[in-house]
Fold each of these.
Amino acid sequence: MRSSYRPDRFTVAIDGPAASGKGTLARGIAETFDFAHLDSGLIYRAIGAKTLEGQDAIVAAQNFDAEDTKRDGLRTSAVSLAASEVAAIPEVRAVLLDFQKQFARRLGGAILDGRDIGTVICPEAEVKLYVTASAETRAKRRLLELRETNSEITYEQVLEDVKTRDERDATRASSPLRPAHDAIMLDTSELSIETALELARSHVREALERLDQAKAD
Ligand code: C5P
């Protein structure tokens, strides 16, 4: 029988490189289990967008408001690259820690996706997934998204952007992109969204069942 146990606090951390599918998985899990969802990339995108308008990155981070993640135009290539630049600044990351940590441990359960959720924001997360896919697969997926608003963009440009961000995110000194030691690896290169989502859901269900069992023991 499936457990319907719901602890007060339950965190799912999903990390992985650009366009690996972690956002889609996070939204699907949030919907299935009724968890609050934070796409942490949008925070860096919102700050990156402000630097493109001439603001200082650290000042923009200090003045960050969750509403900023709802502004239009945060998915463009220019904003993606600006986001990965501001995300490499330790002071920017430090200012944003509290907001994300509190979100992770809110009552009712939370799912956060990003680069450092399982390693820095919430190492105590009950489920940690590290989602990957080849750079080529990720570039193809991102191209389909970007083509909706920009018909000029080419596969080569998107692949270049993805590789530039991968390199910057993985080699920065502050909270580099890497799997937590206890993360479950999920390579989505050959998986349909539905299959990847079903796998991710099964990991969440198992963790809930384990907690339910531990409570009963
Ligand atoms: O996930 P997304 O592609 O929207 O993230 C945009 C950029 O924000 C990433 O390339 C990365 O540099 C940065 N980021 C980060 N830490 C996170 C989430 C995103 O450094 N937790």
Amino acid sequence: MSATNATGGIKRLLIANRGEIACRVIRSCKKLGIESVAVFSDADRRARHVQQADLACHIGGSAVGESYLNAKAIIDAALKVKADAIHPGYGFLSESTQLISLCNQNGIIFVGPTLESIAAMGSKIEAKEIAQGLEIPTVPGYNGETQDVDRLQKEAERIGFPVLIKASAGGGGKGMRIVRQSSEFREALTLARQEALNAFGDDRVLLEKYLVRPRHIEVQLLGDTHGNVVHLFDRECSIQRNYQKVIEEAPVSHLDMKVRQSLFDCAVRLGRHLGYRGAGTVEFIFDADSQQAYFLEMNTRLQVEHPTTELVTGIDLVEWQVRVANGEALAFAQSDLKTVGHAIEARVNAEDPANNYLPEIGTIQLYREPVAEGLRIDSGVQQGSEITPFYDSMLAKVIAFGDTRGLASQRLLHGLNNFAIGGVKTNQEFLTSLITRPAFLQELTTQYIGKEFPQGWQPWGEQMHTAIAACAFALEQEHRTDAAMAGTPWQKLGGWRLTASAGTPAVARLWLQTNNGLREIRVVGRQGKYEVQVIEPAAKDSPSTSAHFSIHLYRPAATLADAQWQVELDGTRRSLDIAITEKQVSISSPRLRRSYRFIGLEDAMLGQAAATKNAGNVIRARMPGLITDVLVQVGDVVEEGATAVVMEAMKLIHNMPCPVSGTVKQVLVAAGDKVEDGSLLIEIEPAQ
Ligand code: ADP
């Protein structure tokens, strides 16, 4: 559907958001010939959305409360630049009745539904009531107004455990708690209420039967101001972590068409009832065991995963949000709509999936998006972008389209593998392992990640890449030694003792600092032919393990610029990009991108001693954040690995474990404290 006669009243649109969604809305503005206005905080002065927009307004400090969540500042900016309309994107103020009221008071068009729709769907209790009134099935549970503890406990018993407590005002998985048995209910309720009050200023909760094998299915709606409401089919978002979506696709597979049709009907019925205008999503949960589908909630805004629907329906949802806000009628009826092919989206985050998904902050030093048939990248960063602790960690979405689900996933894999991002760790490899598991071809449930990676996710080929990097280091050193560079730093590296005489293989021992301790690499060999052993440190419940590799390595001649190294492993030869500086080996293969900083014997021993003496008994904040819970007190006897502090940073909850067993000596924080990167939080006197 092309944009004809589309601009209507809106000539200048302010986007009250940042990152990829701001860039996405700017794209549709360009298509419609509308001027775009970006807003930015202190931390975002040089952000990509600011550079792409026609105009940009500074709205305040880096903290979201001072800028992107400050409705007043946003309205002031819109008035200053005489914007006709505001697009809220998703998150931030996208479902804020305050922003709409201010828009209405100031004659600014809000690109979204009415205040009444947002208010009705903003409370899960009320939304569920409305759905029930329309005979839309809802998850068995309790969504009454009476909120006293005894009543809730009684209702929980009636529903039967496990029960899920949800914050009525909740979103993004916040304020949700599973209760597995009756005796745990009261405590869980207290905690859930506290969390809800802190996060949303509303401590009302609802109770639901906790479904053990649910699928997340949602229906995209589009309505206009002329009474038309259509659905744009469904999406599946079952691959989640902590109730947050990781991979999304359209349309839904492995589900009976009759069930799907009934969900389309329910969604449209709800949309009509609300007089819904603009884009919205009705979410359902499908119980894979009982094969029943239930209404979950409605999101009255554009969703992160909207591109999948755009690719299979050919409809630009942002364009239609704007046109509808302009008063235009939808140019298509339900019978004009269909889906073609399949689309899958993966969210690329700055985080370390091998280290409990810890968000990463830093500068994006390398950035190249893949370009290929059937691939769409929606991103909000570029080379040089700063990833700060103030906002969420999503950098980009890779969305692949194909005639079939198989082709779409193949293209997605290729897109993720060829998306070069350096400077911060990303979850790209984690995403590729999610879509290449055999289970990805079967019916998906929200248990997918936990089931596929019961021990947590570890990168494929990590040890192999460590081994190759160590060999490259060895070969480089031989090369430099041969070139008679005695006395260079290469000779001084403690671990390298090439003591063997000519003709016998040399042995080198190197160490790498890993999250679990020191990983040792032993390299035996010469001139590119090596036997390598990679020895992992012993962990709490597992002994030290080792892996063995036979590697032939061919170093490119220095005269050939840009030449790649060749590595032969298990009889197969491949090309690899390897760069070696004095102490660091960077290696980039399609499956893995890593930088290794090897250390020699003395440093390894010193480091280990220092680690146990200093760092080993304290917990420090690894980034700025908010302490949400402190679970230990001075004098407590604690076990290594037990959670001591819960911290919120970059919109995520981090459980921070005790590094050693012992007695708590100092507790320097309390719930509600803001902490800086590196702040000391807890000190433990290690048990002897
Ligand atoms: P939020 O508004 O915080 O995103 P939702 O109600 O949309 O909360 O639920 C988010 C996710 O939580 C769902 O996609 C699903 O994975 C899980 N979930 C929600 N309700 C249930 C339930 N009754 N049983 C099991 N899982 C649930």
